[in-house]
Design a protein that fits this description.
Blueprint (H helix, E strand, L loop, with lengths): L15 H12 L4 H5 L5 E4 L18 E13 L6 E8 L2 E7 L3 H7 L5 E6 L1 E4 L2 E5 L2 E4 H6 L6 E4 L4 H4 L4 H15 L9 H7 L4 H9 L4 H33 L10 H10 L6 H14 L6 E6 L5 H14 L3 E5 L3 H14 L7 E4 L5 H12 L5 E4 L13 E7 L6 H8 L7 E6 L5 H7 L4 E5 L10 E6 L3 H13 L3 E6 L6 H18 L7 E4 L5 H13 L4 E5 L11 E6 L7 H8 L10 E6 L5 H12 L3 H12 L25 H17 L11 H7 L1 H5 L7
Parallel strand pairs: 4-7, 10-15, 10-16, 11-13, 11-14, 12-13, 14-15, 17-22, 18-20, 18-21, 19-20, 21-22
Antiparallel strand pairs: 1-9, 2-3, 2-5, 3-4, 5-8, 6-7
Helix pairs in contact: 8-9, 9-23, 9-24, 10-12, 11-12, 21-22
The chain binds adenosine-5'-diphosphate and magnesium ion.
């Protein structure tokens, strides 16, 4: 980056101290360079100017541009209801522009009888054309500005920012910034790569992304900048990967011994599915390769990942190594412990559980046995990563439902050994392959497709309040047949109190509608003590409760095969991945199961799309791809829940898959020839690599 790009945005004409602070706080823009990388999120065509008479009630969905003269102004209403109306006219008709905010300022700048370029979304009020809060600019000024083509970028702002700096304000600053940086942008992309891939220069790209000279130039600019983003990330990921695989210091699990064999031949109650077999093969190959394993095992809810994990842990034990399995919740830890301890009875492995609620005395015993090598498999929550948990010979770490763990938490686990243990990360929130490639390029991926035989897909329906009575009738019918039911309420941090109230009200209503002694209702939510939660879950699991009213606590891990219906209240408030996880709570037995998504009538178009998708497919991978499309790459950035934070400003792993694949190959070729980017022709690429190093650190680089 040329040094001018590092200059503060503060000194740019029209910015100043206060706006600079806001820009930094709201958009993370501190320097000219930051500003240049604040790209428009879409473009509008302003090459066409309409006549007022051309606008009809049929074409009010798009933004339009008018050129008209001010013929009158009026202020109506009082206080917060005040509205300011400006009448404009051209030779075909009249229109009004309306403001509810910023009235004083607008009144000052608008001059009677002057001509303006007006830009906004038309609407009709009692047959009259009106534009609410349009952009306006005097004709003289509009004509004096550089406008290379009709395409104008629209910039995202934030709610706080938009009152002082809307998209037009940002556009204006961008024009100023451009005057300062023109001719000074140094391209870090080596000529040989630019030529090979037909990339325009960085300066041209940045110019055209903000001020497209033509639709073609805009496309080239987008291609260049997406290429840069993906290549920057790939250069990091692949460098780490070659470090890890080059080290060849992985533990070797050469022996398939008694423990594995006894379990596999005598205890395993079912035959493995093809997907499970392949996953086990992948893992076994990794563990004899001499390279530390770093594998992501993806499989839909209920696809049977646990047994793959268990087989791997037995393999470790056969080779004299300890394993640990880290899971996100206490409930899940207990459940895994119960399942696994039972499955390996008589196999000759020692299994223990360690969580936040393990009593002091018990904890001490466990820690001692662990350090003495007397425990083979330790299952637990994040309590496992505490300092004082020391293994004697940790050879394998399994992480279940990895999206729930922060990156630092994961990192702590692998520093428990001088030599890094093998890592198997399991997730039921499928990350589309394309995204996995961007974000987890350092992980090898195994996928278990499909479910064990004999499962019927869950039927999913979207209902509104009007169907509640019918729904309750259906639930009663299911209970009479001996089935059990989950009813789930959203619990989202910011409004925890409110959510808690709605859960309480829901619980009360259900107890009213499902009275004793015919119906037994249990409740489980985040504000209860762990013991009370555990007790409620147990009650439901034993079949002593017909209905479990819960928050998304039950999202992962609860396994009650007799539960056949899950009702998700305010379903529009859950993300697709979460909905899919919740749905995975049913359909675990042989009975037909149902997932009912409840919402009010008026939900957003985007929410309806999500719910519709849920009704149409039960394939988690399809849903994950769709989720990415609905949310766009922008939302992946720093999504706390996914534990992934890669700052993609323009590229989208779903839509730009081809560019992703291309850069994947380019990075490999470059690094194969020059792993440290030390050759003259590659030196400048270091800038690109280092620019994305920080985002990649969020990932699995700590492993090596
Ligand atoms: P998840 O992948 O969601 O963690 P689990 O490992 O909990 O799934 O498995 C779900 C259920 O399927 C468990 O009850 C498990 O015993 C059962 N299961 C796993 N593999 C098979 C198989 N090959 N055949 C039949 N049932 C299986
Ligand atoms: Mg699981």
């Amino acid at each position: 980056m040329g040094s001018v790009l590092l200059n503060s945005i503060k000194y740019v004409h029209g910015v100043g101290e206060a706006r600079a602070k806001l820009l930094e706080k709201e958009l993370g823009v501190a320097t000219l360079g930051d500003m240049l990388y604040h790209f428009p999120f879409r473009y509008i065509d302003r090459s066409r100017t309409y006549k007022i008479g051309e606008i009809t009630e049929n074409n009010t969905s798009a933004y339009i541009q008018l050129r008209a003269r001010v013929v009158g102004k009026a202020i109506a209403g009082e206080g917060r209801k005040q509205r300011y109306t400006v009448m404009v006219a051209d030779d075909t008709g009249r229109a009004e522009m309306v403001w509810f905010k910023g009235i004083k300022w607008i009144d000052k700048v608008i001059e009677h009888n002057r001509e303006y370029i007006i830009f906004g979304r038309p609407s009709f009020f009692r047959g009259d054309l009106s534009l609410i809060h349009p952009e306006i600019e005097s004709v003289e000024k509009a004509l004096s500005r550089p406008r290379e083509s009709g395409l104008q970028g629209i910039y995202s702002t934030t709610e706080r920012l938009s009152t002082t700096l809307g998209t037009k304000g940002i556009y204006n600053i961008m024009c100023e910034v451009w005057n300062l940086v023109r001719g000074k942008i140094v391209d870090y992309m080596p000529d040989y790569l630019r030529k090979a891939h037909g990339l325009i220069s960085l300066e041209e790209a940045l110019y055209n992304i903000h001020f497209p000279q033509s639709p073609e130039r805009l496309k080239q600019a987008q291609f260049r900048l997406k290429f840069d983003e993906f290549l920057g990330i790939q250069l990091n990921i692949q460098a780490h990967r070659s470090l890890r695989t080059g080290a060849r210091n992985g533990f070797i699990f050469a022996r398939v011994g008694d423990k594995f064999n006894t379990f596999f031949h005598e205890r395993l109650p079912f035959a493995l599915t093809e997907g499970q077999k392949q996953a086990v093969r992948d893992v076994r190959n990794d563990c004899v390769s001499g390279v530390q394993m770093n594998r992501l095992l993806q499989g839909d809810v209920g696809s049977g990942k646990t047994v793959v994990a268990l087989l791997t842990m037995l393999l470790a034990a056969d080779n004299g190594f300890q394993s640990c399995m880290m899971v996100p919740t206490e409930i899940l830890a207990r459940q895994h412990y119960a399942t696994i301890a039972k499955m390996v009875e008589g196999v000759g492995v020692r299994v223990a559980i360690l969580t936040g609620t393990t009593k002091t005395k018990e904890r001490r015993t466990i820690l001692e046995s662990l350090a003495a090598g007397e425990i083979d498999i330790l299952i637990g929550t994040h309590a496992l990563i505490e300092e004082r948990v020391q293994f004697s010979n940790l050879g394998l770490v399994i992480i279940d439902e990895q999206h729930r763990f922060g990156v630092e938490q994961r990192a702590k686990l692998w520093t428990k050994n001088a030599q890094a243990p093998h890592i198997l990360v399991m997730t039921a929130t499928p990350i589309p392959r394309t995204l996995a490639m961007t974000l987890y390029g350092d992980l090898d991926v195994s996928i278990i497709r499909g479910l064990p035989p004999g499962r019927q897909p869950v039927k999913t329906y979207h209902y509104t309040e009007s169907a509640r009575l019918r729904l309750f009738g259906f639930l009663k019918e299911q209970i009479r047949r001996g089935r059990q039911i989950y009813i789930v309420y959203p619990l989202i941090k910011e409004s925890e109190k409110l959510d808690y109230i709605s859960l309480q009200e829901g619980f009360d209503a259900i107890v009213r509608d499902f009275p004793l002694p015919d119906f037994r209702v249990a409740v489980c939510h985040g504000q209860m003590k762990p013991e009370a939660k555990q007790a409620a879950m147990e009650e439901f699991k034993r079949g002593d409760a017909d209905i479990l009213v819960a928050t998304s606590v039950i999202e992962v891990g609860v396994d009650v095969p007799n539960a056949t219906v899950i009702v998700i209240e305010s379903a529009e408030r859950f993300g697709l991945a979460q909905l899919h996880q919740l749905r995975g709570r049913v359909g675990r037995g042989s009975e037909q199961s149902y997932c009912i998504l409840m919402t009010d009538e008026g939900i957003s178009a985007e929410s309806s799309k999500r719910l519709e998708a849920m009704c149409q497919t039960s394939d988690g991978f399809e849903l994950a791809e769709l989720d990415l499309k609905l949310r766009g790459a922008g939302d992946i950035n720093g999504t706390a829940q996914s534990g992934v934070a890669i700052d993609l400003k323009i590229a989208n792993p779903t839509y730009d898959n081809q560019i992703l694949q291309l850069t994947h190959r380019v990075a490999r070729e470059v690094l194969e020839e020059d792993g440290t980017l030390s050759m003259e022709k590659n030196l400048s690429l270091r800038q690109l690599r280092d620019r994305y190093a920080a985002s990649y650190k969020m990932d699995f680089s700590e492993i090596s």
